[in-house]
Amino acid sequence: GLSAFMPFRAQTKLSAAKHALLKGGLNKTLGGALGVQIICWVGYARQAHQYWRSVMGQIDKWDFNDQELNAKTQLVNRQKSALNLEVLEIDKAGCNGLFLDKKNGEIRASLAECECKDFNYSGNSPRKSFSPCMHIYRLAIEMELMEPVYFDSRERMRREENKMLQEKKKDPSQWGEWSFTLHFYNPQKKRQASAYDMASEIHDIDKVSKSGLIHGYNTFLNSCTCPDFRDRKLPCKHIYCLALLLGEQLELSQSEYENYKEEGSFY
Predict the structure, then answer these.
(1) Considering the entire predicted model, what is its pTM?
(2) What is the pLDDT of residue 52?
(3) CA–CA separation, 236 and 238 (whole Å)
(4) CA-to-CA distance for 40 and 16, rounded, in angstroms?
(5) ∠ at Cα 262 (261, 267), nearest 5°?
């Protein structure tokens, strides 16, 4: 099969060729000229795939714990950017992940290679030597192969705020034993707003155990298996959604939520 790293145009042409062939066979339904075009499409896809793989390099057993090796300016900047990526999927067994960033969209990476331009090119020229890009660094962090050391100002502020919220004492009288004051802060209010968005969807909720399967994540009032909770150890949108569906009252009221949707602000 063709790799996920094939250029999009080649994937599209190959998909069209497969679709046409499956609809009845090359000789029965396509006609000579179109049949030749389909063969050309398949040939083009194979050639494009071979070329793409030839220009893409690989990292050979990079040492993510070598502080001196990873302290070069370019690599430090990549590690900072890595923490701003959204994690869509992590396959620890296969050592690969799928990430989302505003500039490049969805990018898949393994510990050895990545499909992003930064990994494969220096400007417009193919790289001759390779080092981790931000996607590979984020994968290494998610797989616990390295601890994040370098942070940009936005990430540093986010971590300081998370630490302050994490230090709030547990309150056994509140749902999930979360401190009541925790829910007043804007990062938490944004997650409560997302919970209102999700609450109208169909979820598998067990009111006896006070748990649920929300967007594929095992959710309880005090924990969730999603990346956001794993990273912050604070209530995520899934936890707030579960609380809503179990009849708990959120700090963000329905009217405040509707105002936020209209104004884009909690003020």
Answers:
(1) 0.50
(2) 47
(3) 5
(4) 12
(5) 85
From CA 22, how far away is CA 15, in angstroms rounded? 11
Distance, in Å, from the CA atom of 238 to the CA atom of 219, rounded to the nearest integer, reads 7
Confirm if 266 and 260 have CB atoms less than 8 A apart: yes
Given a contact cutoff of 8 angstroms between Cβ atoms, the answer to whether 234 and 162 are in contact is: yes
Give yes or no for residue 264 having a pLDDT over 80.
no
pLDDT tens digits along 37-51? 544 554 554 555 445
DSSP lists the bridge partners of residue 98 as 89, 108
CA–CA distance, 176 with 8 (Å, rounded to integer):
45
Q: Average pLDDT of the chain?
A: 81
Q: Report d(CA 179, CA 172) in Å as an integer.
A: 9
Average pLDDT over residues 64-82: 90
Give the DSSP per-residue string, 26-57.
Answer: HHHHT-HHHHHHHHHHHHHHHHHHHHHHHH--
User: In the chain, what percentage of residues exceed pLDDT 70?
Assistant: 77
Which phi and psi (to 5°) does residue 121 adopt?
-130, 145
Instruction: Quote the crossing angle between the two packed helices 8-22 and 32-55, to the nearest 10°.
Output: 150
Question: Could you tell me which of 220, 176, 241 has the C-alpha nearest to residue 252?
Answer: 241
Buried b (16+ CB within 10 A) or exposed e, 54-91: eebbebeebebeeeeebeeeebeebbbbbbebebeebe
Structure confidence by residue, pLDDT tens digits, 135-172: 999 999 999 899 887 777 777 788 788 889 999 999 99
Phi, psi of 65 (to 5 degrees): -100, 0
